[in-house]
Amino acid sequence: MKIKGAVSVCELAVRVFTGLLIVAQACLLDYFMVTAQGLPALGWIVADLQVLVVFVCCNYMAIRYFFRMHHQKKTVSPAPEMGLLPYAFIIWISYSIVLMAKVAYMFKTFARSLPAEYTAMEGYFGTNMMKIAIGLSAGIFALLIAGHHRSRASQRHRFCLKWMQSHVVFELLDTVEFLSILFINEDQLLVPFAVENAIITYSCLNLILPFVGLYQLSSVNFARTKPNENFTIYQTLLATVMVNIPYLVIRLYLWHTLNFTTALFIMKNFIAIVGSFWELRMFIPYCARAEEEEGRDPEGKETTELKSLRKEEETETDPSLRLQIPASDSFDKISA
Hints:
The protein is flat and about 60 Å long. The chain contains 12 helices and 2 strands. The chain has a two-stranded antiparallel sheet. Strand 1 and strand 2 form a beta hairpin.
């Protein structure tokens, strides 16, 4: 069932649930900050309301765009394509900036000393609830992609969406585990000040990195019928340089100096680095071939195949050459 033929009820329900998840995460994190820092921390609600307004406005504009494209008459010149995920990158950039600021603020003030176990005074709001609250960002990202219009998605579009979901969600969950190193009451670990700042910095960067892929799949893709494969290269490079390599180096450093290790995630970072370089080895030639198939090489010049096709079209539309075709056919019949 579709609303006015543009957006299905299921997609609309996913969008509503995404908004509720954003509100739930904001309430959890605000509760942590108000409990620890007092009433002045209520000022974060203003930022949360701004994120919610951006979310509602962008979804409204996306639905209106799909409705206009669906009911557009064929005689009217088509509106410019806004890409596979219109306005999704605006939602994520506004959401991730606020989340990044909250994470940095909490871990530089009170989050490191949160209780690791349930206590009668603190209740369930300890380190585990903090992990769940931050980890909701992975679910929000997955639902943000799932809730967008995909009725016209080709196989290449679906591949891009599946790649984004599996890649980004796993990296966001890795960030939650990476931040848990700073919880003193869990592992009784006191990391150096420089390492603490590095963990917070790279974790916050990873929260905002999905913006790159969404930007490539969103309104920058005007008038493209196929998704740009280059976004996988950018996302893979950034995830490798800004996430997996720093995470692996810091985890190896803590293992060597403080005898603290999370072996599972060390293997994850190592496998991700090797896999990323292998993907780049395959994707770069593939993207070059895809650009040639679209009629232009990476430098923007016409390929020889396109030139030959254009010459054939000119030959077919030339009246003088069209008159010669029957004569040549009759001559072949006489000679036979």
